[in-house]
Design a protein that fits this description.
The structure holds 2 protein chains of 2 kinds. In chain A, about 35% of the residues lie in helices and about 20% in strands. Chain A is of the alpha+beta class. Chain B has 6 helices and 5 strands. The chains are: A alpha+beta, B alpha+beta. The structure holds flavin-adenine dinucleotide and FE2/S2 (inorganic) cluster (2 copies).
Chain lengths: ~300, ~180
């Protein structure tokens, strides 16, 4: 095994071009488990730890450019306002030790259907900036990023540089089912983002299909129901019938499996519950913000 | 490969490190620092917790090569480097002689003993490093803060109550020291 230690982004791309099978290692919280348990013996480990720019972020006018290696702890502490859904999701990852190292870039690299960043990214809306030495940089919309169970849209010679996430323009929530509050892989997870500027909602579902997915039919239904009822303007409470229908459609989007963490039927049911709850929470905070600052 | 790093304030060099080796392995097997424990090697138990450049991490999930040129603090280094106010010895019984540093305990270690927070002791080094890390950031943590800060550390013996007592005790003693202008 070789341990490659590029000191810059350019060097990292060159190393990946020279050794496309090299395994990048950022926080190491997925990679090291596999190595410790002999599940992976790559010829090359490509340490991204010295590429300082990967640990930086920048809040722009409409988006946050989040470097691939920014650890969850930092997202919770510094980006709660701009990326509330992702900050909530980050807080549910594992433990302080893991959150101090684990990153969104690593979560996307692993592309597990249970990765907690994914539902929040799907709901907020984002693009993944990936780059290779041969073909330069490209942006992959998050909706096209997950291509199968633990598979993503990266080519072998590409690395993830950053994630461009839309700044929140309304309330966002993330909710996860597990046996305790820490150190738990999601049985299933759901994220909801209200986008008052475009008067749309977006969702993300984790651990209830081969890949993280959006509940498109549920989104379309809720978009139409909120528009028709004039709810964005009046800020009135959304009637339970709408919440129930939204929940049913979210359940319907799932394509889960039975496994040790839960049955498919339970996951489908739980996603409906989480969808209804997150809608209630988000809509309550939307109403509060409307009451505090009514439109001129 | 060769790895250079600072451990508990001292520069160290290790040779023949396998590229896939963890920092935990290097500490225990190559440097003779067995304080950090190996229980799960998958980030679940926290018994291998150390500070890497002042950040609390599971050393079993850090590749040794990633620690190149960095500063590591293990439980063995706690007496010399724990929470700021603790530089002064807090040991009220005053057994340890001034110049015998090996007998000195960090305030968090003394608090674990006094609160009866140690049973088999296997989880203790990781909990000490994690609790000390909390008190460095927050000298007066709430119970919820303590529980969250220690949520990555498993203990099979104590049922955690005495451990929470120990952290509260260390925080209270730190407060007293500060008030007395320590
Ligand atoms: C005890 C424990 C509990 C956990 N709990 C959770 C949890 O609750 N929720 C959750 O979502 N995850 C959890 N995880 C998994 C893990 O912490 C996350 O997936 C984390 O986001 C991985 O980030 P990392 O930086 O450590 O990735 P690494 O382990 O360094 O890398 C992960 C993968 O991404 C690739 N990669 C990393 N960076 C790049 C890049 N820039 N470009 C291309 N590929 C890249 C690597 O090659 C590897 O395949 C847990 C892990 C452990 C050990
Ligand atoms: S040995 Fe590292 S967390 Fe258990
Ligand atoms: S004292 Fe035995 S595991 Fe904690």
């Amino acid at each position: 095994m070789d341990f490659l230690r590029p000191a810059s982004w350019e060097e990292a791309l060159a190393a990946k071009a020279a050794h496309p099978a090299a395994v990048p290692i950022a926080g190491g919280t997925d990679v090291m488990v596999e190595i410790n348990f002999d599940l992976r013996r790559p010829d090359h480990l490509l340490d991204l730890g010295r590429v300082a720019e990967l640990r930086e972020w920048e809040v722009g006018e409409r988006t946050v450019r989040l470097g691939a290696s920014v650890p969850y702890t930092q997202i919770m502490a510094e980006l709660r306002h701009d990326l509330p859904g992702l900050a909530l999701a980050s807080h549910t990852v594992a433990s302080p030790q893991i959150r101090n190292r684990g990153s969104v870039g690593g979560n996307l690299g692993t592309a597990s259907p249970a990765g907690d960043a994914h539902p929040a990214l799907l709901a907020a809306g984002c693009e993944v900036e990936v780059e290779s030495r041969a073909r330069g940089s490209r942006r992959v919309p998050i909706d096209a990023f997950f291509t199968g169970v633990k598979r993503n849209a990266l080519a072998p010679d590409e690395l993830i540089r950053a994630v461009h996430i839309d700044r929140a323009d309304g309330p966002q929530q993330f909710s996860k089912v597990g046996t305790r509050n820490a150190m738990v892989i999601a049985v299933c997870a759901f994220s909801l983002a209200l986008h008052p500027e475009s008067r749309t909602v977006r969702t993300g579902i984790g651990s209830a299909a081969p890949t993280p997915i959006r509940a498109r039919a549920a989104e379309e239904f809720l978009n139409a129901a909120l528009e028709e009822g004039g709810f964005w303007d009046t800020g009135e409470a959304v009637p339970p019938s709408i919440g129930a229908r939204f929940a049913g459609l979210a359940s319907g989007a799932c394509n889960p499996i039975d496994d040790v963490r839960g049955s498919a039927a339970y996951r489908r049911h739980a996603i409906g519950v989480l969808a209804r709850r997150t809608l209630t929470w988000c809509w309550e905070s939307y109403r509060e913000s409307e009451r505090r600052a009514p439109c001129a | 490969m060769r790895v250079n790093l600072r451990v508990n304030g001292r520069p160290r060099q290790v040779d023949d490190v396998w590229e896939g080796e963890s920092l935990l392995y290097v500490l225990r097997e190559r440097m003779g620092l067995p304080g950090s424990k190996n229980a799960c090697e998958q980030g679940e138990c926290g018994s291998c917790s150390v500070r890497l450049d002042d950040v609390l991490v599971c050393s079993c999930l850090v590749a040794a090569g990633q620690a190149e040129g960095r500063e590591v603090l293990t439980v063995e280094g706690l007496p010399g480097a724990s929470a700021p106010s603790s530089a002064l010895s807090s040991d009220p019984s005053g057994d340890s002689s001034e110049d015998d540093r090996s007998g000195e305990l960090a305030p968090i270690q003394q608090a674990f003993i006094d609160a009866g927070a140690v049973q088999c002791g296997f989880c203790t080094p990781g909990l000490l490093v994690a609790a000390d890390d909390l008190l460095r950031r927050d000298s007066d943590p709430s119970d919820a803060d303590i529980r969250e800060a220690l949520s990555g550390n498993l203990c099979r013996c104590t049922g955690y109550e005495k451990i929470l007592d120990a952290v509260r005790l260390a925080a209270a003693r730190g407060e007293t020291r500060r008030r007395e202008g320590g």
